[in-house]
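Let us work through a complete example step by step.
Step 1: write down the sequence.
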Amino acid sequence: MIEELRIEHLGVIAAASVRPGPGFTALTGETGAGKTMVLTALEMLLGGRVDSAISEGASIEGLWTVSPDGPAAVKVMEAGGRVDDGELLLGRTAANGRLRAFAGGRMVPASLLSELGEHLVTIHGQTTQQRLRNPAAQRGALDRFGGADHLHLLAEHRSAHHSWHAVAAQLVAARTSQQQNAQRMVFLRSALEEIERVDPQPGETHALHAEQHRLANLADLSAATAAAGAAVLGDDTTEAVGAAHLLHLAARELASVDDPELSALHERLVALAEEASEVGRDVSGFTDALQDEPGRLEWINQRLHDLAVLQSRYGEDEAAVLRWSQEASAELTDLERGSDLDSLADQELRARRALDRATEALSASRSALAQTLGREATAELQQLAMPNAVLQIVVSDADLGPDGADDVAFLLAAHPGAAPAPVAKAASGGELSRIMLALEVVLADTDAVRTFVFDEVDAGVGGAAATAIGRRLAALARSAQVIVVTHMPQVAAFADTHLRVVKQQDADVTVSDVRALDDEERVVEIARMLAGQEDSLHAREHARELLAARL
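Step 2: predict the structure and record it as C-alpha cells.
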C-alpha cells in the first residue's frame, strides 16, 4: 500500500505530502485546486511521461509498504536497490527537460518504474473506462477473474502458440528453400558438367597463349633460327663455315704452340667452341620443332575461348575455376542430402495438436468464467443503483492468436425488456463507471495488486447512485487500499481518510496543498461539496447525516 506521496513543484502544487490511509481514502477539493496533479504525480512516479510545461523542476517521491519477497521488492533488489523492513521508496525528478527515475535509492530506467507499477497500483480513470469498451480489455478482465489457474492456461496457450508458430515458420521456410535449392542444384550440376567437359589445367592459358604467339609467327621464327643455326654451325648448301668450326680451328692452332699464356687462351677458345656448338645444336633443334601442325592454331584458339568462358563464370584463372568446382561439388552434396521435410511436418503437426488442446482448454475455461463473472457483476450492479441491469459476458469464436481463439463481449441490458447490447453502445458514462466499479469489486479477490486509485468513478451519477458507489468502494476497501478522487459528497462520506486539496492565492501566484481533515473539517468540506457553502448550517447538518449514515 501507499504510505506517503511527496510532491514538489508539480503544476499548481508547490509542496505537498499525501498520506492515504489503509482503507478508503477520498481526495476532494474545488475545481482547479489541483486534484488532478496528485494523480499526475502518481502516474509520473510509476514511469509515465508528463507534459514538461507542468513537470519542469518537479520532484516526486512515494513510499510503499511491500512484501519483502514480493515481485516489486525482488525487481528493485535485482536492479541494485534496497527494500528496508518492507518499505520501498520510489522517486522521479524532472530537470532541464530530462526525467530521472529512482527505486530503492538507486537510479533506474523509467521502464522499471512502469514494471513496478503493475505490482503496486491499479489506476482507473476516464481512459480506463474507455478501454473497457475495447474487446481486448474485456477479454483481459475475464482472464483476470479466472485467477492463477486460468492464467496458467493462458500462459500455456501462449507457449504452445509460440512453439507452433516457430516450427510452422521453419516448415514454410524449408519448403520455400527446397524449391530454391532445386534450382540451385540444376545450376551446380550444369556448371560442374561444363567444367568437367573443358577440364582446365593449372597454367594452361599462359602456355597456350605462348604457343599461339609462336604459331602465328612461325615463318619469321623459322627464318631467324635457320640463319642463326647456319651462322653458328655452317651451311652445307653453300659450304659456308660456321662460327663453331672457326673457333675449333683457332683452338688447334694455339694447341701446337708451347707457351703458358697461349695455353690459357687455348682453353678459353676450346670452351667457346664447345658452347657455340651447343648453342648451334639448340637452335637447330628449335628450328626442327617449328612444324605447322594442321589445325593446331585453330584448336588453340578454341581452347582459349573455352577457358575464357569458364574464367568469366567461375574464376579469374584455371586455379580459381578448379577451387570453385570443388566448393560447388561440396555444396551440391549438401543440397542433395536436403532438409528433412517429413520430420518438420511431423513436428508442426504435433505442435498444432498441442496448440489445439491448449486453445480448447482456454476457451472452455473462459466460457465457464463468463457465466460466473456475469452473474457476480450483475449482482454488484444491482447494488449500484442499477437494480434491473443485467451484464452478460459472451465468449465467441475468433481468429487464433497468442491469447486464444475467443472474442469476449460485455453486453448490457439496462432494464427489463431491453435487448443486451455491447457496453460501448448501451452504457452511458455513468453506467460505464458503475460497470467498471462492479468488475473491480468482483475482481478484487483475484488481483494481486492491493491498491486501487479511482479518478471520478462517480462521473455522470448522483443521488442514490452516488451513495451506492460510495458503499461499494467502502466494501472494496475492506480488502484493499482504495484512493478515490471525487466531487460527490455521497462518495466522500464513506471514506476512512479524507484528504482535501486546498488552493491558496497570493497576489498573482496560486498554489495548492493537500491536507488531512479531522471529523469537523470533514463536515465543512462535505457541506461545501453539497451546497457550495461551507458555512451553511443546513448543508453542515446534511453532511453530518451523510457521515452518520455510512456507519
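Step 3: interpret the result. Residues 2-121+449-517 form a domain with the Rossmann fold fold (CATH 3.40.50.300).
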